[in-house]
Amino acid sequence: xxxxxxxxxxxxxxxxxxxxxxxxxxxxxxxxxxxxxxxxxxxxxxxxxxxxxxxxxxxxxxxxxxxxxxxxxxxxxxxxxxxxxxxxxxxxxxxxxxxxxxxxxxxxxxxxxxxxxxxxxxxxxxxxxxxxxxxxxxxxxxxxxxxxxxxxxxxxxxxxxxxxxxxxxxxxxxxxxxxxxxxxxxxxxxxxxxxxxxxxxxxxxxxxxxxxxxxxxxxxxxxxxxxxxxxxxxxxxxxxxxxxxxxxxxxxxxxxxxxxxxxxxxxxxxxxxxxxxxxxxxxxxxxxxxxxxxxxxxxxxxxxxxxxxxxxxxxxxxxxxxxxxxxxxxxxxxxxxxxxxxxxxxxxxxxxxxxxxxxxxxxxxxxxxxxxxxxxxxxxxxxxxxxxxxxxxxxxxxxxxxxxxxx
Length: 407
Description:
This protein has helices spanning 89-99, 108-114, 131-140, 160-171, 185-195, 236-246, 265-268, 354-366, 376-394, and strands spanning 55-60, 79-85, 103-105, 121-124, 144-147, 175-177, 202-210, 250-259, 278-287, 292-298, 306-313, 316-319, 322-325, 400-401. With 407 residues, the chain is α/β, with parallel strands linked by helices.
């Protein structure tokens, strides 16, 4: 029995779904990796309503990628978008129009502080450097929070990690990291095979995030936060193929960084906010289940862009979108993916993952017992391990212990 991306769409617990890759989706600023990769919207199973309640959501951030709008809160029947914000007034106005927000604010901080009981949840789609602090602010005000990746940015923000764990516990609210890998077809297949015991003992996992960039433009990010960004500071699209498939964590890391060889002063003279010389970083991890993993993030490899994961265990493996192994171990797995609300069909980027992340977040808020896929522990275990990988690369590949987070 071969399980391929074409016929293997299954879910973990209540809300898992995904789609194969299709033609490029339009974007107002041209082709952007991930946003040119929409999923097949056809579903094998119908969508079953799970609540008659609506979650009142505020959305922060439109930006270059129209990010606040492309997770489709505005199209979900269990959502009322009540507020929107972007630091740029024109983008704020456009975001409000697209998501049908009733009110606008000049900043995320002001929206979080002033909406009060008129709002239940916040989606933070702002610059990466602001994610952690806005998450903490929103949790402190009593909101459920979804955040774009990464959960925090770099070594300077590591102190936010324990604060985020504590804030989620103290508030009792749902926190979800919108890591798109979690609802890609590959990761869904790997997660369900893993949970069914189809891999046996998981020996080795690979995750790859290739996103070629010349590194010469900084106008595509707020205050140039992407300029010279250490690759492993943005590790979730690779690390997620392990953490979002197994909900395990990494325990040690040794990382090899490759310096820029094009003469670009952003790297060669470290003219970037991070003092970073590397355009590509390959991390070698020990994992919590006694296995190993190779996770690559590369900005400097022309000729290929994409995100890919593989798992190898003692009883089976998943590679090239195909399970090979003891099929009796996964016999009876549900091969019909969860449907989406009618208004959310034909939508989605990053392999069709976007609407499923939103549906998962809403289920966690409205359905008792439903646990969001990428909760705060998984979010931090996915993100912080990359920060330590870069620290290792800067130390010539020295092996470092990786902190572990739980909630």
